[in-house]
Design brief:
Elements (H helix, E strand, L loop, with lengths): L3 E4 L2 E4 L2 E2 H8 L3 E5 H14 L6 E6 L6 H9 L3 E4 L2 H9 L7 E3 L6 H10 L3 E4 L2 H13 L4 E8 L21 E2 H12 L4 E7 L10 H19 L6 E3 L17 H11 L6 E4 L3 H4 L3 E11 L6 E4 L8 H5 L5 E3 L6 E7 L8 E9 L6 E4 L21 E5 L2 E6 L4 H6 L8
Parallel strand pairs: 4-20, 5-6, 5-13, 6-7, 7-8, 8-9, 9-10, 9-11, 11-12, 12-13, 15-17
Antiparallel strand pairs: 1-2, 2-3, 4-14, 14-15, 14-19, 16-19, 17-18, 20-21
Helix pairs in contact: 2-9, 5-6
The protein binds pyridoxal-5'-phosphate.
Length: 418
C-alpha cells in the first residue's frame, strides 16, 4: 500500500498534487512519500513481531538519500551498508554505529579500518582473507571486530540473473561446503569476535520457497558449527523480498515472509538480523516526468518523456517493468512505446504498452521507483543529476538538488598542456 492516489482526477503524493511539485522543482524528479516509508517500516517490523530477538538494518543501497535514512533511523532501523560512502551516509543520518552492518564483497582495507574506527556493529565477511585482514586491523587497535561469515547456500532465487546472489557461481559469500573449516580458522583469530553467519540470495524474490530452502541450509550449518563448539548468537537473513511492480500483481507479503521465517528458524535461539531494502522503499517513490513529444511510429507511436535511462536505469539494466500513469488521465488509452531522450535504443521504458493517452507537455509518473532508482542515476548524455523530493502530509522538501551540467563541468579540468 502506498500514499500516491487520485483526487478529483489529479495524482497526489499524500496531500500534495504532483503538478505543484513539477511546477516548483521541475521534471524529471523523484517524489517520495514519507507516510509510505513509515508504513512499510512498521508493516515489516510487525511481520516479525513473533520472533524474540530481531535487528532491522535497512539496506541503504536501495535508497540512500539522507532524508530517507533519517526517516528510517526515526523508525528504529539500523542500516546495512556496502561501502564506506554508505557508512558515512548512515552515520550522518543519525544511525547509531552499532546498529550498522557492513556487507559487500569488496570492502577495501581503508574501508575496514574506517568502519572499525567508527564502531560498526557487524562485519559480514565474504572471504577468508578479508577476515584475516580485519582481525589484524582490529588487533592493532586492541579490539575484536564483531563479525559473521556470509555463506553462499547455492540456491536459485528465481529472480533476474543480475540480482541473483546466492548461487555458487555468484561472487558472494563462501561455499557452504568450505564454510565450517573456514569458520574454525577465523574463530581462532584474536582480532575477531566471530559470532554467526549471514546470507542474502538475491533481490525482488517473488517466491518464498528459495529463501526457505536457503534458511534450512543455514539452520543445518548453525547446528554443525555449534556441534564443533562455536558460540553462534546471530544469523543475518539478508533482504530480498519482492514488491509488486504491476497493478494487481500479487507477491508474498511481509506477513507471509514473517510466518515463513518463524517456521524456518524455530529453535535457532539467535538474534535474527534482516536487511530489507526494496520492500521498504520500492513503492514509496515515483519518478515524475513530463512528456516532451508524441512521435508517430510503426507499429506504435513513441511517447518521448524527459526522464531517461540515466535517471531510472532498471528497465535498461534488468528489463524491469514500471507502471506508467498520467498525472491527469482523461480516460482515453493508447498503445505506445515510452522512451527517454538518450541516444541509445536501450533508453526505452516500455514497448507496445497499453497506457493512459498523454499529449506533449502532460505529466506522468513511473511508479514503484523508490528503490534502486535515484541511487543508480548518472549524468550520461550530460544530463542533470535527477533531484529528489520528500512529501510528508501537505508539505514537501527538495531532499536532493538537481545537479546541473554546469556544476558537473566545473569539477572537470582541461590540463594546460592541451
Ligand atoms: C542489496 C542487498 C540487500 C537488500 O536487498 P533488497 O532486495 O532490496 O531487500 C540486503 N542485503 C545485502 C547484502 C544486499 O546486497
Amino acid at each position: 500500500m502506498d500514499h500516491f492516489s487520485f483526487r478529483n482526477g489529479v495524482l497526489y503524493a499524500e496531500d500534495v498534487p504532483m503538478p505543484v511539485i513539477a511546477e516548483q522543482v521541475g521534471t524529471p524528479v523523484y517524489v517520495y512519500s514519507a507516510a509510505t516509508f513509515r508504513r512499510h517500516a512498521r508493516v515489516f517490523r510487525e511481520a516479525l513481531s513473533g520472533l524474540s530477538r530481531v535487528h532491522l538494518a535497512y539496506a541503504v543501497k536501495a535508497n540512500p538519500n539522507l532524508a530517507v535514512l533519517r526517516l528510517m533511523a526515526n523508525e528504529g532501523y539500523g542500516a546495512d551498508v556496502v561501502s564506506g560512502g554508505e557508512m558515512t551516509r548512515a552515520l550522518a543520518a543519525g544511525m547509531p554505529a552499532d546498529a550498522i552492518v557492513f556487507s559487500g564483497v569488496g570492502k577495501t582495507h581503508a574501508e575496514l579500518a574506517a568502519a572499525l574506527d567508527a564502531g560498526i556493529g557487524q562485519f559480514n565477511l565474504e572471504l577468508e582473507e578479508e577476515g584475516e585482514v580485519l582481525a589484524r586491523l582490529a588487533h592493532a587497535r586492541g579490539r575484536r571486530a564483531p563479525a559473521v561469515l556470509r555463506v553462499n547456500p547455492d540456491v536459485d532465487a528465481g529472480t533476474h540473473a543480475k540480482i541473483s546472489t546466492g548461487r555458487k557461481q555468484n561472487k558472494f559469500g563462501v561455499p557452504i561446503a568450505d564454510a565450517a573449516a573456514m569458520f574454525d580458522r577465523l574463530a581462532k583469530l584474536d582480532g575477531l569476535n566471530l559470532r554467526g553467519v549471514a546470507l542474502h540470495i538475491g533481490s525482488q524474490l517473488a517466491d518464498l520457497a528459495p529463501l526457505e530452502a536457503a534458511f534450512g541450509r543455514i539452520g543445518d550449518f548453525v547446528r554443525t558449527l555449534r556441534a564443533a563448539g562455536h558460540r553462534i548468537d546471530r544469523v543475518d537473513l539478508g533482504g530480498g523480498l519482492g514488491v509488486p511492480y504491476r497493478e494487481g500483481e500479487l507477491l508474498p507479503t511481509p506477513a507471509d515472509y514473517g510466518a515463513m521465517v518463524a517456521r524456518a528458524t524455530a529453535g535457532w535461539d539467535v538474534e535474527l538480523m534482516f536487511e530489507p531494502g526494496r520492500v521498504i522503499a520500492g513503492n514509496a517513490g515515483v519518478l515524475l516526468t513530463r512528456v516532451i513529444w508524441n512521435k508517430p511510429g510503426e507499429p506504435n507511436p513513441y511517447v518521448i518523456v524527459d526522464a531517461a535511462m540515466n535517471d531510472l536505469a532498471r528497465p535498461a539494466l534488468y528489463d524491469a517493468w514500471h507502471d506508467f500513469v498520467a498525472v491527469e488521465p482523461t480516460g482515453e488509452r493508447i498503445t505506445a512505446n515510452i522512451a527517454g531522450p538518450i541516444c541509445e535504443s536501450g533508453d526505452t521504458f516500455a514497448m507496445g504498452r497499453d497506457i493512459d493517452a498523454v499529449r506533449s507537455g502532460d505529466l506522468a509518473v513511473f511508479r514503484t521507483a523508490g528503490a534502486y532508482g535515484a541511487t543508480m542515476a548518472s549524468t550520461y548524455n550530460s544530463r542533470a543529476l535527477v533531484p529528489e523530493v520528500l512529501v510528508d502530509g501537505d508539505r514537501f522538501a527538495v531532499v536532493a538538488d538537481r545537479v546541473e551540467p554546469a556544476a558537473l563541468i566545473a569539477a572537470e579540468r582541461v590540463p594546460d598542456w592541451l
